[in-house]
Amino acid sequence: MYIMSQHDAPWIRKVIIMMLLTCVASSTATLEPTEPLAAVVKSVNDFSLDLYLKEAEIKGPGENILLSPLSAFLVTAMVHAGAEGLTKDEITKALRYPRDGGTLEKGFMLLHNLLQNTPNVTLETANRVYVEENIGKKIKSNFQETIIGVHKSELLAADFQFHAEEERISINEWVSNKTQQKIVDLIPPGMVNHDTIMVLINAVYFHGEWKKQFSKKQTSEDDFYITNDQTKTVKMMFIQRKLKYANIPKLDAQAVELSYKNENFCLQIILPNSRHGLEALQKKLSDGFDLSNIDFKSTLMILHLPKFKLAETVDIKSLYQKMGVTSMFQQTANFSGMFDNASVHVSDAIQKTFMEVDERGTMAGAASSFKIVNRMMPSFKKFKVDHPYMVRLIMRNLSGESVTLFIGSVYNPN
């Protein structure tokens, strides 16, 4: 139970963080190769791999994973802006922040600006902070300026004390609208109540098409090996053309990269050479392999890739605690950068993700014809995704650096 003083004594309430993202395979703008932006990109990528590997530990073998490190990073960055002491130190370490705060702020502003400039693709990104109206005036001006100016967030008053359920419904409607109805009921009943003082949300929606679409006529049923002994029938897409391919001996794996209409944005499929090799691949990643260093080369290929749809709800609180971020969830959390004379902490942190891969690239994308060459050429590299694999959705800047938007594992294509 949390109690709020009726007079001038410090008040005790709770802060809720909501993190969400829906991805329907899209593309994005070109990132300028600036030093502040490069610093933020490196932080996101390092954080991404940590997040993915910890979630793999928690879920164990055989479970699908879909995370948006970028979404988690952006909303946690807003929390970091109001943290001090041990609370701030733990978040700084987890987010892999550079030491130079000025560089970081410039990098965030560049990234947010670029995310709003996305030709030839539908890309929605939005931050929102809902604050209990009775304590809104107690928010420190520096925190407000950072949230609005650096993190491009809207700051709205809410009546959680007397109309928590109405506010919950309103927030969920905003999320649903921002994600084209792919994420509904983000906040379950009861999570927002009269003790809530703040809800922080990041919403991202992508919608794009493949540069070269798969032909639906070439999609057929095939076996997918969930384990060596267990198979399921999946809709296997087929394409025969030049693609970017990489052999990765250090991971005992190979990879293919599929570009979207905006070629700065692509989906990487990382396939272990062994049907049961995904856990071993994850172990090699934890030993320090850098996914951004995969050397892709243009190769004539025959690709078989299952259609799949993933929808996940992630307990970010448990994930962060496993990463060593514990202080912000305790009643001793230090958020004195947000409020004066307040004892607040994060009570809940969640993320919802959605991703669908099909012949067009996205569920809503307009189809265009693409003629498949029927004759099998002996020089074509065969790449059949018929067992558990890893996915990574990235965008590149002009220097070739990539930032991870989504990362996951597919054990069971749905």
From TrEMBL:
InterPro entries: Serpin_dom, Serpin_fam, Serpin_sf, Serpin_sf_1, Serpin_sf_2. One of its GO terms (cellular component) is extracellular space. Residues 1-29 form the signal peptide. GO terms for molecular function: serine-type endopeptidase inhibitor activity. SMART domains: SERPIN (SM00093). Keywords: Protease inhibitor, Serine protease inhibitor, Signal. Residues 49-413 form the Serpin domain. It comes from the Eukaryota. PANTHER family: GH10112P-RELATED, SERINE PROTEASE INHIBITOR, SERPIN. Belongs to the serpin family. This is Serpin B10. The lineage of its organism: Eukaryota, Metazoa, Ecdysozoa, Arthropoda, Hexapoda.
